[in-house]
UniProtKB/TrEMBL annotation:
InterPro entries: Ice-binding_C (IPR013424). This is PEP-CTERM sorting domain-containing protein. NCBIfam families: PEP_CTERM (TIGR02595). The keyword Signal applies.
Amino acid sequence: MRELTKVFAAILALLLANTASALLVYDQNNPYVFLESGESKTITHDLRDNGVPDSFLVTSAKLVLGFSDGYWEADKAYDFADISGDGLSGTWEVDGTHKFGFDIRWLDVGSDGIDSLNTSGLLAVTVTALAYYDGKSQPYNDFWWKTSKLKANIEPIPVPEPATVALLGLGILGLGVSRRRSRKEVF
């Protein structure tokens, strides 16, 4: 019985052993576009052009967007943007009055975005300068959308290696042989 437990423990250890590790892949897309109240711009991040093979899965992703303030001298108020796309949605203040005129937004990409990255390798992002926010007109809502960087964690799709499967088969065969021998000795 002890030998059987050791064999099963060895098999379980082989099955749980994972030599793969996660990688971090970046896709930089700098739209450098000026958006005024009511205008929008869509860009697409493409992980395929970074050489990510089909045998890898995106497990999580973050989007880092960079903004700076617009031209209006009277623009001392906050600027607001609606950010949307697969796995992205929400309204943020993006006026660049922070960090010496540059504002950075870190967004987690949701499950719809992860699915899009895994099926097509693409993630579309749309930024809209809101004409209205909180029921109020925003006539001076203008800003620069300067940077967009996608950071994706990828892992190889686990595939059993032939040597592992062969070793598992030999272990099961050895169990059968030892069991057969022990039955013959008893009778």
